[in-house]
Write a structure and sequence with these properties.
Blueprint: H1 2-11, H2 19-35, H3 44-53, E1 62-64, E2 71-73, E3 75-81, H4 89-101, E4 106-108, H5 117-129, E5 134-139, H6 144-158, E6 163-168, H7 174-181, H8 186-195, E7 199-206, H9 209-218, E8 223-227, H10 241-251, E9 254-258, H11 273-281, E10 287-292, H12 295-306, H13 313-324
Parallel strand pairs: 3-4, 3-10, 4-5, 5-6, 6-7, 7-8, 8-9, 9-10
Antiparallel strand pairs: 1-2
């Protein structure tokens, strides 16, 4: 199984074996430079010392987003929660800006989130920070004409003229795949939009690993957004998850994990938010998106990502056993 090969490879990876020693070395080196007077007048060395000594400033780890050519932060921002709630514009803008400041470079939203509110709030930040973000949104309409209408509305709300990743939203049944196979379907619209440069990459989302695996076997989607958490909440057909990852690994599909905390429902039920995020990131995924309700949660998730350590198969199995007891 390719999934097993992935874990063997990760467990044998020694590239991050001594991050603490490397950090200690940097601190001592910069401190020495400061002691020699090189940093006395401020400038580069003073800034470098402050950067290294502040744990919050450690770089956000990144992974390749499949074959898109983009390296994505392993923790990314989802467009639900505060960002999709009416009357929370200022709070949402603060969360989005802080996420980018912390090194998050991927934001996922959808036309449906908050009936357009999520895209509108994100657009308020995109109008001056667009180049910092790999921006993803979705079309829930499986028809050609419907999708062409939705993309225009999304572009307007997001205050941009292009979408990096455009995705079919919540494809969870085989009959939906059949609709996408038809002429002048949403898939046809996606292909035309990509040719025109309006979207950069094509993806698909859903809760069923079986349906998503079927979709990936018949069409070269560049990214797949899937529910992935230890309790299997909102995970349809979880027994197909191995097949799903076999296909995505073989095809170098960018995998985006969602609902890693089941919208907060499983935090505190024997698991911490750190454990849950770490668990999902230990699968062969590119990133995990999390909807944020308050800034403290954002800071905690970013810290978890910066300190990420790959779980072993045994540790993951132990968590799964805990989830069933």
């Amino acid at each position: 199984m390719l999934l097993n090969e992935f874990f063997k490879k990760k467990e044998g990876d020694t590239s991050m074996k001594n991050p603490v020693n490397r950090r200690t070395f940097l601190k001592r080196s910069l401190a020495s430079l400061a002691g020699t007077g090189l940093a006395a007048s401020g400038g580069l060395f003073t800034e470098a010392i402050a950067w290294v000594l502040d744990p919050a400033n450690q770089p956000m780890p990144k992974r390749a987003l499949g074959k898109t050519g983009f390296d994505v932060s392993i923790f990314s921002l989802g467009g639900l929660s505060t960002i999709s709630q009416a009357g929370r514009k200022e709070d949402a803008i603060e969360i989005i800006n802080r996420a980018l400041d912390l090194g998050v470079n991927f934001i996922d939203t959808a036309h449906r989130y908050g009936n357009g509110i999520s895209e509108e709030y994100i657009g308020e930040v995109m109008k001056y920070r667009r180049k910092e973000v790999f921006l993803a949104t979705k079309s829930h309409d499986l028809t050609y004409d419907g999708t062409m209408r939705l993309i225009e509305e999304s572009l307007s709300r997001l205050q941009t003229d292009y979408i990096d990743l455009y995705q079919h939203h919540f494809v969870n049944r085989s009959d939906q795949l059949e609709q996408l196979r038809r002429s002048r379907s949403a898939r046809t619209a996606f292909e035309e939009l990509k040719e025109q440069g309006v979207i950069g990459h094509i993806g698909i989302t859903g809760h069923s690993s079986r349906v998503l695996a079927d979709a990936l076997e018949e069409y070269p989607y560049e990214c797949a957004l899937i529910t992935l958490n230890v309790t299997r909440d909102e995970m349809d057909d979880p027994n197909h998850i191995g097949r799903f990852f076999d296909i995505t690994t073989r095809n170098e599909t960018g995998v985006i994990a969602m609902k890693v905390m089941a919208r907060g429902a499983i935090v505190g039920q024997g698991f911490t938010a750190k454990e849950l995020l770490t668990y999902s990131l230990s699968y062969p995924v590119s990133t995990a998106i999390v909807g944020i309700s308050i800034l403290d949660h954002l800071e905690e998730n970013a810290e978890t990502a910066r300190e990420f350590r790959q779980m072993t198969r045994e540790e993951m199995e132990s968590m799964r056993i805990r989830a069933t007891t």
